[in-house]
């Protein structure tokens, strides 16, 4: 059995207005049509929806339960209608991303742009400080950044990803803590949460280290790592060719904590376009992690 949403709307409207004559007027139907709908609803429910209470009608237990569900179903129906009617979105939205997401998110953004040809998407790949600054000054509508230590604005944790030691897939560097040599580290220029957390873990374990290569791009880090200039620290998300995850215990390296990947906006309730793209980006990242 499937309840008729049109009938449910008449039922809810009549209860809320306190009169089915008023409901008929509001819904542009005759009172006899509304009456027929209520009889149909009672037949589907298999029990009376109303009982006499003095000179007025009151809801039975069945009526109360059905009223609650009717409101919820109608709300979901109206939400779906709004979503479909607003698929022809117009405007533009500005998105900031980490380089680690560059291997798969452009494809997602391309699908979004093709589905909404009247929407202009501007995407910027940059590092945390730049992205957060642009969220604050309004030059970005949303951004995905590493970490969640920030006051102000709206933020939503997308996932927690394990940080990993990463080396050359060709085995060009075979460092081990027993060698007594400082660990050569490849990292972004400061400030970098990966660099900070990794060096803190090394210091706690009494392992000396040296910064052997810095870069402002993920490609630079990956090229240096592949060449064996040192070990770098990232997550498995967006791993570059020529690099591989290392067995930390085997090399005497300290285990590393997880790091949050967080979506940031200035407002918790943005415009529909920003909200839609936020949802798509979040879902795409979670799907990639699950895969």
Automatic annotation (TrEMBL):
Residue ranges of domain HTH lysR-type in the record: 3-60
GO MF, one example: DNA binding
InterPro entries: LTTR, LysR_HTH_N, LysR_subst-bd, WH-like_DNA-bd_sf, WH_DNA-bd_sf
Coiled-coil regions, chain positions: none
Superkingdom assignment: Bacteria
One Pfam family it belongs to: HTH_1
Gene3D superfamilies according to UniProt: Periplasmic binding protein-like II, Winged helix-like DNA-binding domain superfamily/Winged helix DNA-binding domain
Keyword entries, A-Z: DNA-binding, Transcription, Transcription regulation
UniProt KW Cell wall biogenesis/degradation keyword: no
Family according to the record: Belongs to the LysR transcriptional regulatory family.
Matching PANTHER family: HTH-TYPE TRANSCRIPTIONAL REGULATOR LRHA-RELATED (PTHR30579:SF7), TRANSCRIPTIONAL REGULATOR (PTHR30579)
Protein known as: LysR family transcriptional regulator
Organism encoding this protein: Halomonas binhaiensis
């Amino acid at each position: 059995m499937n309840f008729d949403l049109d009938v449910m709307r008449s039922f809810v409207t009549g209860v809320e207005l306190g009169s089915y004559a008023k409901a008929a007027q509001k819904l542009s139907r005759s009172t006899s049509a509304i009456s027929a709908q209520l009889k149909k609803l009672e037949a589907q429910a298999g029990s009376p929806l109303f009982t006499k209470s003095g000179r007025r009608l009151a809801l039975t237990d069945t009526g109360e339960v059905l009223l609650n569900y009717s409101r919820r179903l109608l709300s979901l129906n109206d939400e779906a209608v709004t979503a479909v009617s607003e698929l022809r979105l117009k405007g533009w939205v500005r998105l900031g991303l980490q380089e680690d997401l560059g291997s798969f998110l452009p494809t997602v953004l391309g699908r979004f742009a093709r589905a909404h040809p009247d929407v202009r998407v501007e995407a910027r790949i940059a590092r945390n400080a730049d992205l957060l600054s642009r969220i604050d000054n309004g030059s970005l509508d949303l951004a995905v950044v590493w970490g969640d230590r920030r006051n102000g604005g709206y933020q939503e944790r997308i996932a927690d990803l394990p940080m990993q030691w990463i080396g050359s897939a060709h085995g060009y560097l075979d460092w081990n803590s027993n060698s007594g040599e400082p660990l050569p580290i490849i990292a972004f220029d400061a400030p970098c949460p990966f660099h900070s957390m990794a060096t803190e873990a090394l210091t706690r374990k009494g392992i000396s280290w040296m910064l052997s290569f810095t870069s402002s791009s993920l490609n630079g880090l990956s090229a240096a790592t592949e060449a064996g200039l040192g070990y770098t620290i990232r997550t498995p998300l967006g791993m570059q060719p020529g690099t591989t995850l290392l067995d930390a215990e085997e090399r005497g390296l300290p285990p590393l904590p997880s790091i949050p990947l967080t979506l940031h906006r200035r407002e918790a309730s943005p415009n529909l376009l920003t909200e839609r793209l936020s949802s798509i980006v979040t879902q795409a990242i979670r799907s990639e992690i699950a895969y």
